[in-house]
Every structure is written in C-alpha cells, then in structure tokens.
Amino acid sequence: MKSIRETAVSFGVTPRTLRYYEEIGLLTPGRSSGNQRVYASQDAARLKLILRGKKYGFSLEEIREMILLFDEDRSGRKQLERSIEYGEKRIREIETVISEFQLLKEEMEGWLMHFEQKLKEEES
Amino acid sequence: MKSIRETAVSFGVTPRTLRYYEEIGLLTPGRSSGNQRVYASQDAARLKLILRGKKYGFSLEEIREMILLFDEDRSGRKQLERSIEYGEKRIREIETVISEFQLLKEEMEGWLMHFEQKLKEEES
DNA sequence: TTTATCATTGACGTTAACGTTAACTTCAAT
DNA sequence: ATTGAAGTTAACGTTAACGTCAATGATAAA
Asked: B70-91 pLDDT, tens per residue?
C-alpha cells in the first residue's frame, strides 16, 4: 500500500497525473481512514498498463475504452477480441511509419552523396 | 498558381491550416493583386514537407527549425561541409527513430499479449 | 451587372493532458 | 503538542493546432 507520492515517484509521474487519471476513471485507488489515496498492487499494475499505452501513442480516452471493455466484458470475449484487433491495427500503422522512415533515410543519403561529390570536385 | 482552397483541398487540409502555417512562419505564399494568397509549386513542395514531418510525429515547431536549417544550408553553398555534417546527423537521428519504433512495436506486441493471455484464461 | 462564392484579418472558442494556486486537513517526527 | 511536509478538493491557467464566427473585400459565372 503506497501513498500518492510514492506511487507517482516510482512511475515517474506527478501526483496531479494520478489524480487526473482517477478523475477520468482510469484509476480507482482506495482511501485511508483520513481520506487519503492508497495505491495497491492492482492499481500499480493498471497504471503500468496506462503508461505503456501512452507510450504506444494511444490517447487516454482510447486506453480508457480498452480497459473498460476488458473490465465490463469478462464473460463475453467478442469485445476483447476487438480491442486486440485495434492494437494490431496500430502495430501495422507503426510498421508503415518504419518503412517510410527507411525510405526517407535513403532519400537523405542520396541527397548527401550529391554534396559529398561536389566537395571532392572542389578538392581536386 | 493555386488559390488557398485549391491548395488546401489537394493536400487534404483546411484553408485555416494554411493560414496558420503562414502565421507561424512555415509557409510564405505570394499575394494576388487583390491581396489573396497564391500558392506556387515551391509552396506546395514545402507544404508536402511539412505534412510529411507531421506524419512522422514532429511538432510544427520542430519542423520549422528543420526547414530553417535546410534553407540556410541551401543558400550558403560555401558551407558544404557543415551541410553534410548536418545531414549525417539527421540520418543518425532517423536511424535512432527507426530503432525506437522497432522497439516500440515489439513492446506493443507484448502489451497486446497481456490481453490475449487474459482471453485464454477465460476460455479455460 | 448582379449574384454566389471565395478570400481576408481579427478575435474568441476548443480539446487533451496535465500545471498551478488557494484554502484547508492529515500524518509523521520531534 | 507543535510543526512541517504531504494530502485533499475546487477551480482557473497553459500549450498546440487548429475551428469558428463576424465584418468586409475580391472574383467568377450567368
């Protein structure tokens, strides 16, 4: 059971971020006798999931939808499969970005060779 | 020579976007006798560059800096060496981005497996 | 020439994801 | 018991990248 600051520090975020995530329904930590937030391991696990999702370019709203679908639909797996498909679509998009960057890199290398050639011409 | 709407439509953006890009110094189209913006092929080329940069996740500010550097390099032909140096730096940066994206893709596949595993647990 | 669009500048509105401040309350250590 | 750090809610502030008027001028089609 950790406090809000301990949790925040261990995940590299601010307390405000944790309160905000709770505000939009992404986290639901417990409360102490004095009404202070207490974060259990399940909360930490969910936070880890959220931060990973963010890293992968999902908006908090998208992450919320995926988590809610998962929570609400434990018996019906149809929605869950759709969540997975959604993620796989994202992966394919990333693959596209990678290949485009590779193209850009090759373009730039060609552009550079043009100048390197000019430089050599001036040396001679 | 195209009007603002023609240009916007052909690039899939709105006129507001083009005015905004001009406002922050990303585009500098000419003006007609009646003070209306006219977009030449150079402007279209630059717009293409901007949109490609956006697609790769660069902010407009980052794109602005890159374009300014690019312009400096092109006008100062005496600084060929520095141009090449800059280009090589950019290529190394792009290589970093590519490898980061590849890592991201792998991690994301792991993230999805979290859901897929839960799916299998429900099956049993 | 008269519409019917289209364009211009200026200014305020919008959304996401928090930051910041205020005015308290609770906790931990002395 | 006191004090200083940390927590609470509520509400307003911030930034990027435009969206959306409003008032007015320019242009193209019939």
From this structure: 565 554 444 445 555 555 565 5
Q: For chain B, give every domain's residue range.
A: 1-75, 79-124
Count, in order, helices (H) and strands (E) of chain B: 5, 2
Work out if A33's Cβ lies within 7 angstroms of strand C: yes
Q: Does domain A4-72 have CATH number 3.40.50.150?
A: no
Instruction: Decide if A15 contacts A22 (C-beta within 8 A).
Output: no
Q: What is the DSSP letter of B37?
A: E
CA distance B15 to A74: 47
Q: Assess whether B99 (CB) lies less than 7 A from strand C.
A: no
What's the token pair of residue B68? Answer: 């300014």
Determine the residue among B66, B78, B81, B84 to mutate to test chain A binding: the one whose Cβ has the most chain A Cβ atoms within 10 Å: B84
| Burial environment of residue A110 by CB neighbours within 10 A (0 to 12, 13 to 18, 19 or more) | exposed
pLDDT digits (tens, 9 = 90+) for B34-69: 999 999 998 998 898 788 777 666 779 877 876 776
**Which CATH number among 3.30.1330.30, 1.10.1660.10, 1.25.40.10, 1.10.1470.10 corresponds to the domain B1-75?**
1.10.1660.10
Residues of B in contact with A122 (CB under 8 A): 80
Q: If you measure CA to CA, which chain B residue comes closest to A58?
A: B108
Element (H, E) at A37: strand A37-38
